[in-house]
Backbone:
């Protein structure tokens, strides 16, 4: 199956170790010497509509990809997932 980057961007990335959705591929890293894709990059979620920046980006090594299907990319990797912080934005502003 031939796949363009535009096709990859529309596929959801799912970790098969935890069964969690990681997001969509926003960018790729590739080696310019070998012209091979090294990693898929998933941008961090925007904080307050992007006004307060973003969470950390996640990367998935190309070797961790198990299957690229019609609708999803299944990966097997140990990536820490984003967790919600208690208190939110206004807790830190009121201190």
Residues:
């Amino acid at each position: 199956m031939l796949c363009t980057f535009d096709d990859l961007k529309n596929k959801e990335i799912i970790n098969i170790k935890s069964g969690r959705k990681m997001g969509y591929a926003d960018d790729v890293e590739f080696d310019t010497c070998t012209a091979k894709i090294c990693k898929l990059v998933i941008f961090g979620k925007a904080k307050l509509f992007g006004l307060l920046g973003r969470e950390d980006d996640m990367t998935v090594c190309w070797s961790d990809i198990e299957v690229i299907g019609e609708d999803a990319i299944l990966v097997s990797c140990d990536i820490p997932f984003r967790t919600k912080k208690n208190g939110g934005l206004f807790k830190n502003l009121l201190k």
Q: What stands out?
A: The helical segments are 5-9, 88-93.
